[in-house]
Design a protein that fits this description.
heterotrimer; A mainly alpha (about 375); B alpha/beta (about 525); C mainly alpha (about 300); A: mainly alpha; ABC transporter involved in vitamin B12 uptake, BtuC; 2 domains; about 5% strand; B: alpha/beta; 7-stranded mixed β-sheet; about 30% helix; globular
């Protein structure tokens, strides 16, 4: 018996929609097995993990707060991945964007005006875009693998933040804690919905997803992204610049990651600390794939992955499982998504080995 | 060669079938090859010839049917088993490894654990014996196409096969190299071996083959002695009906110069690319200029420079309608009224997984901006307009497809090529540059495409056709030039050109004159 | 033992995991497969080695356990990319994310526990050589394995028929298949070898380098190993040189931090990562070399015609 794959002539529309759901289903099954192995009642565990966080209003707000950076970053990543630019450094762009956006409230903390917040957001986007331009430049001009360069820059960004927060930007009135001063009221991203903590970062995320959907579906730029991602040569034949796209994709993605960074810092944390992200930049990669690089899918996927973060915290309290289970779920989910994606491009058949040529063939 | 009826056939197949999903590539094939015979497997592109021999060589497993070797049924499950049975194969698309040496390449095709040094010696000896000299320590990446084929043949011969399968061997050879190959084949037949010779070229088959089996759409449509048939009777077995010959009557005298290439120099962009040297060409309105040449002599590089995908240092080196465009990209050249059809259908001329409407937009989004796009800088795609144009093109070129707007990958080679050529013709371009217009395309589609090219020229456009197929070149060209190692020969009128002369030019020339043959070839 | 010997020893300790992981990945990439999950396989090896050592009381068992963990973990990658033909880049990333998550969970019980250290094994006679003997021939077994692996991989790839077949697959998997070479089976074996090497490299971290388990203790070494393979143009001897170069940079910046040179420690800690970028840029500048040495079918999907 062996597995045989036959390439489909196009992409299966049916499985394009089904595959993320199948992946989710498989992850849940794996979760059941995992919880049982840990000696907990699997269905109680699944309930506290996936259902409980949805039952309270404050919890739904937490969901939106966590989903906002995931969606925002993943939207940018989807442009990159669709155009075959593998930006793995979104976490670093998030951090640098947060830092760039924090210059005003930290260094120029005396200037307090309604102009501060919009400028912070702009700085955040510019900071993220410029940081992403580094691996873009290295790829376009020097042919250097962007996966490794963008990833190395994540470590560099984390160390840079650590230094800045413990050194030059440390709060002088802060009892030597490694953190900056708190942002003044003009530098805090306001809440979006009256009932809770959801800040405008979530609004930005939804707006970004909508804009991307429009660009990909209706505009020439979206067409250019799709073509260059499928075949750089066909893209050049069409007159598109693949090198130009490297810059475009990375910088847009960097800008969105930077916006996510400054939104998180000014909306949720209201200061800079050594750690400002529980790995959003990496989880966003999973969001992008689970959402099949489609902006609307990404919104849904972002909410689901935000749920895994909350679920881990909830399960820790109610059942006593480590919250690291979140990371495990996220990794498993990505695995299953990739496996199920095969169904979209290939038909899988099981073939008997040793199918001998039969005697007396037909004419 | 006298008919030997009572002799045991070397290879026999009965009802051999191969099904891929819903496609029957081979349908109940009966084949008989006698010992000491050169047997042709005839058929046009897509007839099932390659699939059949892949089954004989163990690369594919049959869905049904029986193979008999010297009367006994055999199951050939792998190339190793095929070799052990006594069957050798030279693939059309070589199975070579560029980064490895000749000796290593040969070693990989052999079974057992013979030491590489001995293989190298054996290979060198055999190659000289059969008139196909090789240097075992050379890297394949540095060899020409003809030399690469020698590796394929020598490594097959090292196994001492009784049946040698050759898949379209002359498609990459000059006429002179082909002659050498035929000598080798006759030598092999003299040794009592058999050759299964796959081709779609009737002249060759009639020249060297003793028997022929004809395939069409996966079925056998005839088995005969090709020398007793006429080209048209063979063609009818291959294609099923008379294929319309291309009509070139009513040509007006050529008009003004629309494309000029002057002293064009372009360095190789990668270590394995061909550098273009001092190319000169002028093409007038109403002309079809054919650039003949064996693969790997700079055709793609020349196409890229003409299309503008690659720009050159000297702006004047390429001129369109008198304007220097050497520095201008493909979009600007399209805006000047040019159309381009590259060699690769998949991943260059079209994107396999995108639908036909998207592929239409691929080359026409700039030139047809007013009809296909709206919203100014936003660039909103006007789907209805694109779909309408796609339908028009499909109708004009008789493109057979499933559904209204299928993915490019679901069309057959011929139909996709018709769409791609039609996409450019739809614009009535003043200049059309086509690289290998009918490679891998069935006869009906090929004939239609060639007629379209001739008609375009007749309407006053300049058409440049780069082609490896000499039949095609003579069918449609008004003038012919030869490309060799990045140089272009002087274009001569088709009426005064001969195959022999083209063959010599393909072998090399300097300043327009033919280079003398290398001593190593004169065996 | 004097200062120079001590420094060289620490460089060797820093270089060994890089060397092992890079060698494993080199073989994988030579067969045409790009496995970005090295970091994930390494961390799994680290946690497994520590856990097994704790539970069995034997550091050697831990080393074997780490190796096995890496091998099994790499099978996940193999099934997804070789049998189901999933995108190799995305799957490698998934492997890393999964590995970091799974190891974090598994390792929770072991945080803060004192670890078992793999004892050095002195080679008789050789270890008595003045100066070098102490350094080269009185090391933990994993170090010896790493050096033997350099020789072994070189011999395998360039002197054996099986290695020739593997290189052929990496050059052109379509041709290899047409010649009857078992592409997928060879790639599975290569991937598992890579997993075992990465697992052993991770084990070295948790039972030799610092006999301890810390979450995410690989700190990007798996990624640096990937860069090393490119830097070495897929040749084992150069991987050795590159690993030791990086080992020296890592140790150098640690000593600089201890020295108190007035440069912020974070800048010094960033040096290995910046060096990795620099090294990648330098190699990419020579386009001809890159084109000739890169296995031509690297990262491409392979579905055999049957």
């Amino acid at each position: 018996m062996r597995i045989e794959l036959q390439k489909r002539p196009g992409q299966s529309a049916l499985f394009s929609i089904l595959s993320p759901f199948i992946a989710l289903g498989l992850t849940l099954v794996a979760g059941v097995i995992l919880f049982a192995a840990l000696g907990k009642n699997p269905f109680d565990a699944l309930y506290s993990f996936f259902i409980e966080p949805l039952t309270e209003v404050w919890s739904l707000h937490e969901l939106a707060v966590k989903a906002a950076p995931l969606i925002l970053i993943a939207v940018g990543l989807s442009i990159c991945y669709r155009s075959n630019n593998w930006n793995i450094g979104a976490e670093g762009q998030f951090i640098i964007g947060a830092m760039a956006g924090s210059i005003l409230p930290v260094v120029f903390h005396d200037w307090q005006s309604p102009l501060v917040l919009p400028l912070m957001l702009v700085f955040g986007m510019v900071g993220g875009a410029l940081y992403a331009a580094i691996p873009a430049f290295l790829k376009a001009r020097l042919n250097t693998n962007e996966i490794l360069t963008s990833l190395m820059l994540v470590y560099v960004a984390q160390l840079f933040l650590d230094w800045v927060v413990r050194g030059p930007w440390r709060n002088p009135e802060g009892f030597n804690f490694p953190e900056t001063r708190s942002f003044h009221e003009y530098a805090v991203l306001p809440e979006m919905i009256a009932s809770g903590k959801t800040h405008w970062g979530f609004g930005f995320a939804l707006l970004a997803a909508l804009l991307l959907w429009f660009v990909m579906r209706r505009t020439l730029k979206g067409f250019e992204i799709a073509v260059l991602g499928q075949s750089a040569r066909a893209g050049r034949f069409a007159g598109f610049s693949d090198k130009g796209m490297v810059f475009f994709a990375f910088m847009v993605s960097g800008a969105l990651a930077g916006l996510a960074g400054i939104s998180e810092v000014s909306g949720a944390i209201e200061q800079l600390r050594p750690v400002i992200s529980p790995g959003y930049g990496f989880t966003a990669i999973i969001v992008a794939f689970l959402g099949r690089l489609n902006p609307l899918g990404i919104v849904a996927a972002g909410l689901i992955l935000a749920l895994t973060y909350l679920g881990g915290e909830a399960a820790q309290i109610s059942i006593g499982i480590t919250d690291k289970v979140s990371r495990l779920f996220q990794g498993l989910l990505l695995f299953f998504v990739l496996g199920c994606d095969t169904l979209i491009h290939y038909r899988i058949t099981l073939v008997q080995t040793g199918l001998a040529t039969r005697q007396g063939g037909t004419a | 060669m006298p008919e030997t009826i009572a002799q045991l056939p070397l290879l026999e197949t009965r009802g051999l079938t191969k099904i891929f999903g819903s496609l029957k590539a081979c349908d109940g094939i009966d084949l008989l090859v006698a010992p000491g015979e050169i047997h042709a497997l005839l058929g046009e592109n897509g007839a099932g010839k390659s699939t059949l021999v892949k089954m004989l060589f163990g690369v594919l497993s049959p869905s049904a049917g029986v193979v008999r070797w010297k009367g006994k049924p055999v199951e050939i499950g792998s190339p190793g088993q095929a070799r052990a049975t006594g069957i050798g194969m030279v693939f059309q698309h070589f199975s070579l490894f560029e980064a490895l040496t000749v000796a290593e390449n040969i070693a990989l095709a052999l079974d057992g654990n013979v030491e590489i040094g001995r293989i190298a010696e054996e290979a060198r000896r055999l190659s000289l014996q059969y008139g196909l000299p090789l240097d075992p320590s050379a890297h394949v990446a540095d060899l020409s196409v003809g030399e690469r084929q020698r590796i394929e043949i020598v490594r097959t011969l090292l196994q001492n096969p009784e049946l040698i399968i050759l898949d379209e061997p002359t498609s990459v050879l000059t006429p002179q190299e082909a002659d050498k190959l035929f000598e080798t084949l006759e030598k092999l037949r003299g040794e009592g071996r058999s050759v299964l010779y796959i081709s779609h070229r009737l002249e060759e088959v009639q020249r060297i083959c003793d028997r022929a089996t004809v395939l069409r759409h996966g079925k056998v449509t005839g088995a005969c002695n090709p020398r007793l048939e006429t080209p048209s009777s063979l063609a009818r077995m291959m294609v099923g009906s008379e294929v319309a010959a291309v009509s070139c009557t009513g040509n007006q005298p050529p008009g003004g110069i629309l494309v000029e290439v002057r002293a064009l120099d372009a360095p190789g962009r990668t270590p394995f690319a061909v550098a273009l040297k001092q190319m000169n060409l002028s093409v007038r309105a109403g002309e079809v200029i054919a650039i003949a040449g064996v693969a790997g002599n700079g055709q793609s590089e020349f196409f890229d420079v003409l299309s503008g995908e690659v720009t050159v240092a000297n702006a004047d080196a390429v001129q369109i309608a008198g304007l220097p465009v050497g520095h201008r990209g493909i979009t600007e050249r399209r805006m000047l009224g040019c159309g381009f059809v590259p060699e690769e259908r998949h991943g260059h001329a079209a994107v396999t997984d995108l639908p036909l409407t998207a592929n239409l937009l691929l080359s026409r989004h700039a030139s047809d901006r007013k009809s296909f796009l709206s919203g100014g800088p936003l660039g909103l795609i006007n789907r209805a307009a694109v779909a309408k144009a796609a339908r028009r093109i499909s109708a004009a070129m008789d493109v057979r497809k499933s559904g209204d707007d299928p993915a490019a990958g679901s069309l057959s080679g011929g139909n996709l090529q018709k769409f791609i050529v039609g996409r450019e013709l739809d614009r009535q371009p003043k200049v059309l540059v086509v690289n290998q217009p009918t490679w891998g395309v069935d006869a009906g589609a090929a004939s239609r495409i060639r007629q379209a090219l001739v008609d375009l020229a007749k309407s006053g456009s300049a058409v440049i056709v780069i082609s490896q197929d000499l039949d095609e070149v003579f069918e449609i060209a008004s003038r012919i030039a030869v490309i060799n190692e990045g140089r272009l020969s002087e274009a001569e009128p088709a009426t005064t050109m001969t195959r022999e002369r083209i063959g010599l030019l393909m072998g090399g020339f300097h300043d327009g004159t033919v280079r003398r043959e290398e001593a190593v070839l004169a065996h | 033992m004097d200062m120079t010997q001590a420094i060289i020893l620490t460089v060797m300790t820093a270089a060994t995991p890089l060397l092992l992981a890079a060698l494993g990945e080199l073989v994988v990439e030579r067969s045409g497969v790009l496995n970005l999950g090295v970091e994930g396989m390494m961390i799994m090896g680290a946690v497994a080695a520590f856990a097994v050592a704790q539970l069995t009381g034997s550091a050697m068992a831990g080393a074997v356990g780490g190796m096995l963990a890496g091998l099994l973990f790499s099978l996940l990658f193999g099934v997804l990319t070789l049998t189901l033909v999933a995108n190799q880049v995305a799957t490698g990333l998934a492997l890393t994310i999964l590995g970091l998550g799974l190891s974090g969970m598994m390792g929770e019980a072991f945080i803060g526990l004192p670890g078992l250290k793999l004892e050095a094994v002195a080679i008789p006679l050789m270890s008595d050589i003045p100066f070098f003997g102490r350094i080269l021939f009185n090391q933990d077994p994993i170090f010896y394995v790493s050096i033997l692996a350099v020789i072994g991989v070189h011999w395998f790839l360039f002197k054996t028929r099986a290695g020739l077949k593997l290189r052929a697959i990496g050059d052109n998997h379509g041709s290899a298949h047409a010649l009857g070479i078992k592409v997928i089976r060879t790639r599975y074996l290569a991937v598992m070898f890579g997993g075992a090497c990465a697992g052993l490299a991770g084990a070295h971290l948790s039972i030799v380098y610092t006999p301890q388990w810390v979450e995410n203790m690989t700190a990007g070494r798996g990624w640096i190993a990937l860069a090393l393979v490119v830097f070495a143009s897929w040749r084992p001897g150069r991987v050795l040189a590159g690993a030791y170069l990086f080992g020296a940079v890592s140790i150098g910046q640690l000593h600089a931090q201890a020295f108190g040179m007035g440069i912020p420690s974070q800048f010094l800690s960033a040096l290995p990562y910046l060096a990795t970028i620099a090294v990648l840029v330098i190699i990419s500048l020579n386009r001809r070399m890159t084109l000739i040495n890169t296995p031509a079918s690297l990262g491409k999907s392979f579905v055999p015609e049957r």
